[in-house]
Task: inverse folding
């Protein structure tokens, strides 16, 4: 038996691996390169220079294009006649693409730039728009060659006659390639965006998904945590047999590694690990408030995986301060130095997705899934169990006695229960709060 | 129907599966024979509801001594001490509703779509809009990674923008997200520009389960959320909630379709309202959802809050109510971190149970907040579920002020019914009564009932087979009268008598009074009825208006007559010592803990 993972691009692109090829977690499986198809929003009120905002009916009147129409850069999309002499004001498309939406209420036109048509170089006639000599372009420019600019950012400005202020803004996001004193233009090179999908695990390509990605097969070990955050990460596994990991326990050595901690981790320690380039944290537990501190937002329901954090965190036991169960810790500590792949995506509901940790290991012949033992199973005296809830959460004990039927607890609840020996103490715990291990 | 002698009723909840056996007695009527339960097995390693169902039936076998299973199959028909003739099932194992919504502009149609989804009690996983900052590739990537239950696609006013809506449909088609239940096609509700219906159908109909409803923004100033919200509700009930791994096997065992639990419970609630000719409010609080049912002056409303519940949705209850919201019901001081860890741990281990007093009190505190929030949501829905298209002004759209009056009137509430594990299995009926009173805050006279052993869903399913039998068991075995609560609202000084009068029981007259900010419970056994006459102080409302006297009948029950002088500001900050004093006075818990960590598990010898 082996583990299979389907790795797909969000957009059609080029598959870069061959069937039966050996891949590692950071191997690029497929890549799609494209220019950003920027959404361009044009304010008719601003472009047409109206004093009062246009009403929806006036928007209908001034528009010469309609939603769905294709437009090319600088094409007139709206025209307005003003005053007795019929002065005409126009609004022009700032990009080639399609008019995606016209907001009649806000007098906005949304143009979705056609990324296939987008030119990598955009030349803006700055001197002409400002009405200044071409050789003065550099003087009026507010940017320099090599600067990164965002769409809408001013490129050049000039205070003309009667303090009439004019400026030219960048229609696209990119890098200023050239400011030309001969032609009076500013050239911006748009960035090529790259979407890549990586293997995530070490293994072999067993199937290709043309234009999209591939199926990877691996052997080794996999287990699921109970909760996680963040996306995917991988790195050399470093195991720390420590109960409470604090920021001072973390140094530069975590860079590029996946940190496995037997106990719990503070929010500050997670923040420091992230800042030092740690690729993932797998820990026994975590006080929920510490996770909120790390994420900067409430968890609300168990739907995670898209948090804006570059380091996945996987909890194996639960919230609070509990150490990792022995089986998992033995697996992690004995695998130190190997490459671990961690995914924090979690959806806690029926049909749940729990976070996963994969230690792909070619030296093994098969794939092994370390399964979290279920609760509520029939128990026998002598069986070793772990408690899932209450003040004894995380403790390991041995079943010493079974009760016939249901047991009435001190709080009045009646449930199937067993007596558990924890060291010198014996307690009665509900069967549904126990896992046989 | 006369040949049917034994019926098995199964309800698969999000955390607990229950099996009930009904049998026809010598008088020809069905009665409850026994009950078994086991934890629901929707999650790994089982991922098959049938494991939990079989365990619950095995438990039922132990209780009744009747052989129901043989070789992993149900024994049918019933003969002697073996088998059943029919099996009826309900399910809410699918749990809460997770949705993704899409619209053209984030602040306009996408926001209306989000409001429709939230209004249907969903958790909104993401809002996709043409003008959001993400690239198309990022949106598609995101859609591929998440597994929603339903997708709501909107955009454009009627006869307005077409291409934007088509773009969204194309993004959705390109992503082809997997639904949470991997085998079926993703249900998509389209509530956008009516002109784009055809092209949307061409784009999505083959790969998605497309449902078309009226545009939720037919014109810019008009918002029409009703049709989309009702369709989402219907799809959730019929295609999501009852679904779970192993659903097909369960379907093979049953003789009827598997009913969604809220539908089955709602049927019984309507029956109670009809029989008692009263205004009723029913609560069914589960692990993932909290359902509220009301019948006011013959008008029936049902709401399912898919993000409020006692296990899977407890994290959301905590965020919605705040840590202080839960802490205010505790009779001991508790650190915020302790409450947070407790709530989120319950979310991780949904089938675990409270086996200490502190744990039980925390759970019941959270239940009060979940019911309170679900009732707030229900009240907002019940005002808009009249089928009237709501025209909202731009100002209303921006401020999101609700329009219209809610039909839920606490002062007109005759009967309150509680169901769900936390209420039915509360160790003392007095605890269940106080949870209902604290969460619902009735005013005037209200009779309280609780579902004895959490059997309303099965009765709803049974009613499909034999309605009379279901109704008979409902009043005979299911509804346990807790008593009557008399509550006031207004302003008063703590300790001051705010209403006084007499209580007549069996011809004997007793003094009766309500004291501001105090509660009292008078014993009034089940089966006893009486008449009460109370004259309130000026400004005090006993349900008939400020200062107006109250005349009415009261019913006895396991708890008795609850005189609630707390002036309907139950959620205010009360120090744990005061809360503890009230709980001790009401003898609510056997031995209150001093702190949340003070209590350990039960020690042996």
Result:
């Amino acid at each position: 038996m082996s583990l299979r993972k389907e790795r797909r691009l969000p957009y059609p692109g080029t598959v870069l691996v061959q069937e039966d090829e050996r891949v590692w977690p950071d191997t690029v499986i497929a890549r799609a390169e494209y220019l950003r198809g920027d959404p361009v929003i044009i304010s008719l009120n601003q472009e047409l220079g109206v004093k009062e905002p246009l009403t929806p009916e006036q928007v209908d009147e001034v528009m010469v294009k309609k939603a769905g129409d294709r437009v090319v850069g600088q094409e007139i999309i709206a025209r307005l006649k003003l005053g007795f002499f019929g002065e005409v004001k126009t609004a022009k498309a700032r990009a080639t693409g399609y008019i995606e939406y016209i907001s009649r209420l806000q007098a906005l036109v949304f143009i979705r730039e056609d990324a296939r048509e987008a030119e990598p170089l955009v030349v803006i006639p700055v001197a002409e728009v400002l009405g200044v000599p071409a050789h003065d372009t550099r003087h009026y420019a507010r940017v320099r060659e090599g600067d990164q600019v965002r769409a809408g950012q001013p490129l050049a400005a000039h205070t003309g006659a009667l303090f009439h202020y004019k400026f030219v803004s960048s229609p696209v996001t990119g890098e200023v390639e050239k400011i030309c004193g001969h032609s009076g233009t500013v050239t911006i090179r748009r960035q090529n965006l790259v979407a890549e999908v990586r293997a995530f695990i070490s293994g072999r390509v067993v199937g290709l998904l043309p234009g999209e990605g591939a199926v990877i097969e691996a052997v080794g070990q996999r287990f699921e945590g109970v909760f996680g955050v963040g996306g995917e990460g991988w790195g050399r596994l470093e195991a720390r047999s420590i109960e409470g990991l604090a920021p001072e326990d973390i140094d530069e050595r975590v860079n590029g590694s996946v940190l496995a901690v037997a106990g719990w981790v503070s929010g500050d320690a997670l923040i420091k690990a992230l800042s030092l380039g740690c690729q993932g944290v797998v820990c026994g537990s975590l006080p929920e408030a510490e996770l909120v501190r790390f994420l900067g937002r409430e968890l609300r329901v168990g739907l995670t995986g898209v948090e804006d954090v570059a380091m996945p965190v996987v909890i194996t036991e639960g919230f609070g301060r509990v150490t990792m169960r022995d089986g998992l810790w033995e697996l992690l500590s004995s695998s130190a130095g190997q490459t671990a792949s961690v995914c924090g995506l979690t959806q806690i509901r029926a049909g749940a997705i729990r976070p996963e940790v994969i230690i792909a290991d070619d030296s093994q012949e098969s794939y092994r899934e370390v399964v979290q033992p279920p609760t509520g199973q029939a128990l026998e005296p002598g069986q070793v169990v772990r408690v899932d809830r209450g003040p004894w959460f995380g403790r390991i004990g041995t079943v010493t006695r079974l009760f016939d039927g249901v047991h009435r607890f001190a709080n009045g609840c009646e449930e199937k229960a067993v007596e558990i020996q924890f060291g010198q103490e014996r307690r009665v715990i509900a069967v549904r709060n126990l896992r046989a291990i | 129907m006369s040949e049917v002698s034994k019926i098995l009723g199964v309800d698969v909840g999000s955390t607990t599966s229950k099996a009930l056996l009904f049998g026809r007695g010598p008088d020809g009527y069905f009665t409850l024979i026994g009950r078994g339960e086991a934890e629901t097995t929707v999650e790994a390693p089982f991922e098959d509801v049938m494991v939990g169902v079989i365990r619950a039936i095995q438990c039922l076998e132990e209780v009744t001594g009747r052989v129901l299973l043989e070789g992993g199959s149900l024994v049918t028909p019933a003969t002697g001490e073996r088998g059943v003739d029919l099996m009826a099932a309900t399910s809410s194992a699918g749990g809460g509703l997770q949705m993704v919504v899409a619209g053209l502009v984030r602040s306009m149609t996408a926001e209306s779509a989000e409001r429709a989804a939230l209004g249907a009690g969903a958790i909104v996983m993401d809002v996709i809009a043409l003008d959001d900052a993400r690239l198309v590739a990022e949106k598609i990537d995101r859609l591929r990674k998440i597994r929603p239950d339903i997708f709501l696609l909107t955009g454009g006013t009627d006869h307005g923008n077409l291409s934007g809506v088509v773009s969204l449909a194309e993004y959705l088609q390109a992503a082809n997200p997997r639904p949470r239940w991997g085998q079926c096609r993703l249900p998509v509700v389209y509530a956008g520009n009516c002109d784009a219906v055809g092209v949307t159908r061409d784009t999505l109909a083959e790969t998605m389960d497309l449902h078309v409803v009226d545009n939720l923004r037919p014109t810019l100033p008009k918002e029409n959320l009703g049709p989309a919200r009702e369709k989402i509700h219907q799809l959730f009930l019929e295609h999501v909630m009852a679904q779970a791994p192993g659903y097909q096997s369960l379907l093979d065992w049953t003789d009827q379709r598997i009913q969604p639990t809220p539908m089955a419970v709602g049927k019984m609630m309507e029956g109670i309202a009809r029989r008692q000719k009263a205004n009723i409010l029913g609560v069914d609080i589960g692990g993932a959802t909290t359902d509220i049912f009301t019948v006011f002056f013959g008008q029936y409303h049902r709401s399912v809050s898919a993000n409020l519940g006692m296990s899977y949705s407890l994290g959301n209850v905590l965020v919605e109510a705040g840590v202080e919201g839960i802490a205010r019901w505790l009779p001991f001081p508790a650190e915020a971190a302790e409450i947070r860890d407790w709530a989120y741990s319950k979310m991780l281990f949904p089938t675990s149970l409270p086996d200490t007093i502190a744990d039980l009190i925390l759970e019941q505190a959270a239940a009060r907040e979940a019911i309170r929030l679900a009732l707030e949501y229900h009240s907002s829905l019940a005002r808009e579920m009249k089928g009237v298209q709501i025209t909202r002004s731009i100002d209303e759209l921006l401020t999101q002020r609700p329009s219209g009056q809610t039909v839920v009137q606490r002062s007109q509430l005759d009967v309150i019914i509680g169901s769900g594990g936390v209420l039915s299995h509360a160790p003392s009926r007095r605890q269940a009564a106080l949870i209902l009173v604290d969460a619902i805050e009735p005013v005037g006279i209200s009779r309280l009932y609780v579902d004895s052993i959490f059997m309303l869903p099965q009765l709803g399913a049974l009613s499909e087979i034999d309605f009379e039998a279901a109704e008979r068991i409902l009043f005979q075995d299911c509804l346990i009268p807790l008593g009557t609560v008399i509550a006031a609202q207004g302003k008063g000084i703590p300790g001051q008598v705010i209403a006084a009068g007499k209580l007549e029981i069996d011809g004997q007259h007793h003094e009766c009074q309500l004291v501001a900010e105090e509660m009292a419970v008078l014993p009034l056994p089940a089966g006893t009825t009486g008449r009460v006459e109370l004259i309130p102080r000026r400004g005090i409302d006993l349900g008939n208006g400020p200062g107006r006297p109250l005349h009415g009948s009261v019913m006895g029950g396991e708890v008795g007559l609850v005189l609630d002088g707390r002036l309907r500001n139950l959620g205010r900050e009360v120090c744990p010592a005061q809360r503890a004093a009230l709980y001790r006075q009401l003898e609510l818990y056997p031995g209150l803990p001093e702190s949340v960590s003070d209590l350990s598990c039960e020690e042996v010898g």
Summary: Residues 190 and 212 of chain B are 5 Å apart (CA to CA). The first strand of chain B starts at residue 6 and ends at 12. Chain B touches chain A through 92 residues (CB under 8 Å).
